[in-house]
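Observation: inputs received (chain + S-adenosyl-L-homocysteine).
Thought: call the complex predictor directly.
Action: predict_structure
Action Input:
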Amino acid sequence: MDYLPIFMKIEQQHCLIVGGGAVAARKADLFIKSGAIVTVVAPELGNEMKFHLAQGKIIWHMNTFSTALVSELPRPSLVISATDDQDVNLAVYETYHAQSIPVNVADQTEYCDFILPAIVDRAPMTIAISTGGRSPVLARVMKARLETMIPHGFSVLTDLVGRYRQAVKNVISDIDGRKTFWETLLSGLFIDKAVHGNTGEAEALLEAELETIRTNGQSLPQGEVYIIGAGPGDPDLMTFKGLRLLQQADVILYDRLVAPEILEMGRREAERIYVGKKEKWHKIDQKDINQMLVDLARQGKRVARLKGGDPYIFGRGAEEVELLVQHDVPYQVVPGITAAAGCSVYADFPLTHRDYAQSVALITGHQQAGAQGIDYARLAQSGDTMVFYMGIKNAPKIQAGLIAHGLCPDTPAAIIENGTRLNQKVTVTSLSKLSETIQKQSIKPPALLVIGDVIKVRERLQKKSLLDDRVPA
Ligand code: SAH
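Observation:
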């Protein structure tokens, strides 16, 4: 490290800014936000600095800086020089550096005793980023990344946790016990409640936890389950929330459809359990998966259940949640981009369009035993864009059923195999040739069948799409 990262308390301390322009004003703003008494030395002020002055946030010495002026100024804790005049900047640096007062000359690392980081401000939580003065732009790029990753609610969360620090100390006397308490609390449901503004609920969770410890002493941490939609294939289509919860998990249960790249985003030490249902001879029953989630949570584990697409669209997520509810296991469900939404976009056509379709039907082509068959009569007359999940095997029946009930045999049909993945294959045909095309092209699951006039839009959108800029790993 070239610099020691520290957070300095400058509240009610004198800080000096030399220069009245825009850069100086931005630096002044940081001092002001940190509660310092800010003196600005400059012959004139730019608009931003005038604004600070008008707000009563700075004291202005209308003067060009010179060593003669120093005795008139309060002794500062920190100094920033941001003028266009290099002689002035140097004079500032030499004057204060000689007195062991840290100086920063804007944009000149060689005259900086300290540097100002790029900041992700979730005050009271503050993240400071530095490249050791090498590239402020790179620091800002990193800042932009972190800004998107860290919800604004972290401000509220940090405040809340701060308020309870002493209360927790009063209940749990040993340091290790407190550490376990906070670690457990801050990696579970509590953090999500607080971050999303449900402060009351978060506080209630914390209070309840403290109360349990008051009466029963500290026990095993309580497990939780996160049912996470992992999207249709392209790992970039995972949500931020899904990623955040995945990275908290001790155990990850995943399906065949979940991209390996997403699995890798979990913690390295997390246990990974495959619960896909591909092989007939190695079939894990849905009931067993449901029970596994309950059992793991009861062992105090945080369990991520990754499912392809969206957990509540042909995903049996609700069955898993039902058992969790029955057993009082805390859980969260994170929506994912369902195959219909992802695959149609990546295949360059919409699911609805003012001219072609006003509604969409998501249909399972694989009928569960005992379930009513597909209502072809209704579908054929509906004008819906029809999206069949798990429909490859039954394509001949789907085709015959729709045509028999009056859907035009020329209606466009698209077969999207491995949608949104690098090996995505899109075949456009017509309803009358659907099953023949599936045969000829030897289409394999996962594949989606889309039937409807919206597919006509594809020709107009396809040429300009940038989606193919993805490079195979
Ligand atoms: N919950 C999932 C659907 C699971 S059912 C979701 O919301 O997307 C599994 C079916 O989804 C597959 O048989 C296939 O029809 C469809 N599917 C899922 N991912 C797909 C992909 N990448 N490309 C094409 N079809 C996909």
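Thought: report the result.
Final Answer: The pocket of S-adenosyl-L-homocysteine is lined by residues 232-233, 257, 307-310, 313-315, 338-339, 343, 389-390, 416, 418-421, 445-448 (CB under 6 Å). The first helix runs from residue 22 to 33.
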